[in-house]
Specification:
The protein is an alpha/beta fold. The protein has twelve helices and 13 strands. The longest helix has 13 residues.
Length: 315
């Protein structure tokens, strides 16, 4: 994490236009900032959160998903694979390590049983998609949100997207875990009208256990971001049995209050992404975890409100 903004620019080269790996553009989002928003999800994340509901976002390359229940076993994907990486085994199409993630099989599959998440797009291409929703932004005071994955893992692309959107007078939001070189965070966030800062744990051991990385940089970056004057909202993904105890919520509330932050968005755990793990061929570490009862969420929200915070459930 020692890269400076200058070294990142040099590594990026003198490209005429930055491009990046995008795995989804979601329209009419109501939980990623104010108003109706278009959320652009960038590929790649340095964290490995146990409960991640977008596991297709984690790799820093395209991810191939296989929906076995949709597969017609027609063999079209096997015929077009340029590296013979597919084989029909026990009635299902299996992918070997020879796969190049080129997407030829997904294009050939009329049943959409094979899907490639992550395609390279230029800033202009993404902005054209964003501009399709200008009318909704104007009516709702909405805009564009960059999320992921971790958008700061593609810093040149993220900065260029935010800047291009702002140039078109589109409200911009950066949704980040804060795990990036501080210079990168401060530079990219200059082009965001609002930063949604996802905090998982204050306890460093639990943070490393559940995400794979230390939270030292994340916490120091949050302080630096607040001191820079950028508007920040803390978002807390509430994971039953992991970070929803009274003590852990109080720790987060104490930090937020000390930094002068008075709004916390609670993001309840859900199971929407569970099937994605199986379809991607990776292990889900919280497969049996159930969402918390509404009463638990209401209790945490009420406690935070009593402490003086504005609280939203669901973003």
């Amino acid at each position: 994490m020692g890269h400076t903004w200058t070294s990142i620019q040099q590594e990026g080269g003198a490209l005429a236009e930055p491009s990046g790996l995008v795995f989804n553009i979601m329209r009419f989002s109501l939980h990623d900032g104010p108003g109706i928003r278009t959320t652009v999800f960038l590929k790649g994340c340095p964290l490995q959160c146990w409960w991640c509901h977008n596991p297709e976002s984690q790799e820093f390359q395209p991810s191939l998903m296989y929906l076995e229940d949709r597969c017609r076993r027609c063999g079209d994907c096997l015929a077009v694979c340029p590296n013979a990486a597919l084989a029909l085994v026990d009635g299902a199409v299996r992918t070997s390590a020879a796969c190049l993630r080129c997407g030829a099989c997904a294009e050939a599959c009329v049943a959409e049983a094979r899907r490639l998440f992550g395609r390279r797009m230029t800033v202009s291409e993404v902005v054209r998609e964003i501009e399709r929703d200008l009318a909704f932004f104007d009516e709702s005071n909405g805009g564009v949100t960059l999320s992921g994955g971790e958008p700061l893992s593609q810093p040149l692309f993220a900065e260029a997207l935010l800047r291009a959107s702002r140039d078109r007078r589109i409200h911009t939001v950066l949704d980040t875990s804060g795990f990036a070189p501080q210079e990168v965070l401060l530079h990219v966030s200059r082009h965001a009208d609002l930063v949604l800062y996802d905090l998982k744990f204050i306890d460093p051991d639990k943070h490393r256990d559940y995400t794979g990385v230390s939270n030292e940089l994340i916490l120091s970056n949050l302080q630096a971001l607040v001191e820079s004057g950028r508007p920040v909202i803390i978002r807390l993904p509430l994971i039953p049995g992991a970070n929803d105890s009274q003590e852990q919520v109080r720790q987060l509330a104490g930090l937020a209050w000390a930094l002068g932050l008075r709004r916390i968005d609670l993001l309840p755990y859900h199971r929407i992404g569970i099937d994605k793990y199986r379809r991607l061929g990776i292990t889900c570490r919280v497969g049996g975890l159930e969402p918390a009862p509404d009463a638990n969420l209401d209790r945490i929200a009420a406690e935070l409100r009593q402490r003086g915070f504005t609280v939203s459930i669901g973003g």
